[in-house]
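Entry 14. Structure prediction run on the chain below.
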Amino acid sequence: RVRLCAGKICFIKGGYSVGIKLIVTDLDGTFLDTYHTLNEENVKAVRRAREQGIYVAAVTARNWSACKWAVTETGFDPLCVINNGAAIVEGSNEKLAFENTIPAPAVRAILQAAAEAEASIDVFAGMFSLEYEPTRLSTKDMVQWRTEWEKKPAHCRPVVEVYQDLEKMIQRASDVSENITVHGKDLTELPGWFYRRVIEQGEFYLTSSHTGCIDIMAYGSTKREGVERLAGMLGVKQEEVVAFGDNSNDIGMLKWAGTGVAVGNAAPSVQAAADMVTARNDEGGFAKALETLIF
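Output returned:
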């Protein structure tokens, strides 16, 4: 169904829109193919949308150093929502337009608790990340992920500092932590006491991108809030936004956007939250949805 709003056809649940001004998309599992490679259909769709004057932005759990190759090679617009909504970076000059960091005392407590749980830890700042891995992850996906990074030119690889000394990592992370990702030992679920320890430090936003993993951000840092903030910066209305996603950390922005689109490989809960389900990420689902919605 559609209705006329100020001379434009606007989206209503179950219908489509030709008044789209902003397209935002998750990267891993949504815009990128399996093992984080670019899908040419999707790349062409981004460029075609931009030619029509539509702003197209990436919204990712990655920080800038880990996603800039995809953003630049695809030809996304400069502003990019990173670290699950904890920051917005201006890609053309690599400056943060917004940042929401976790307070230093909480960073210390969370990292110490994660170490007690024998977990692997990634701390994401805007432009680099820190790693602490008492047991190196060796799942098929992680091995492939590392292999793909090693193939890329040096300037396209993420900036990562690896620590064996937890105290040194805590000191480095104190004032820069936008997203703390904790992987349970052998990718198993983290124990209940770990979550209680986190909650004792204050209010946070917790989400997850895969089994055995938890992402911890400062309160007010979600992909939904990141997209809402980006739309405000661009002067775009909620109903003029289309959002794409595949995992639980995308649900908020899919529900908030005028049109929420889940790719075919998305989790059932994500598909249920979306207004439209398109093809899988490996099948150019992003591009196919834009054919229906815009082109």
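The first strand starts at residue 2 and ends at 5.
Filed with the rest of this week's runs.
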